[in-house]
Amino acid sequence: MALMEISVIPLGTGSTSLGRYVAEIEKYLVEHNIPHTLTDMGTIIEGEVEELLALARKLHEIPFKAGAKRVYTALKIDDRRDKEVHLGTKTESVKRQLGEMA
């Protein structure tokens, strides 16, 4: 299992607001029951690497379908093969370590 952080940014839309494009991506993820967490700077998605890469392509297309003429997509993938990684695993580990330091 891997984690992908993706930011899909439409450019040249005539507005500095991206909310409607982000909402379309969020709607797609919810409708397809894709495990994810929406953050202020992007969306973190859990899945197998092959599936995440295919999904990144689909998410990249959503702003074009909504009328954008140019889209910039940035993604990071954390593919750990020695143990299962899920949404929240990293933050839970840090919180445990902070508790041990107190």
The major beta sheet can be summarized as: 4 strands, antiparallel
Q: What is the number of helices?
A: 3
Please identify the structural class as seen in this structure: alpha+beta
- Based on CA atoms alone, the radius of gyration comes out at 16 Å
Summed up, the domain count is: 1
**Shape, per Cα inertia axes:** elongated
- Provide the low-confidence segments as ranges: none
Determine the N-to-C terminus distance: 32 Å
Query: What is the typical, i.e. mean, pLDDT?
Result: 93
Write the layout of secondary structure elements.
Elements: E1 2-11, H1 19-31, E2 36-39, E3 42-47, H2 49-65, E4 70-79, H3 89-101
Structure in words:
The protein is α+β, with helices and mostly antiparallel strands. It has a single domain (2-101), classed as Alpha-Beta Plaits, CATH 3.30.70.930. It contains 3 helices and 4 strands. It has helices spanning 19-31, 49-65, 89-101; strands at residues 2-11, 36-39, 42-47, 70-79. It is elongated, with a radius of gyration of 16 Å. 14% of the residues are buried. This is MTH1187 family thiamine-binding protein.
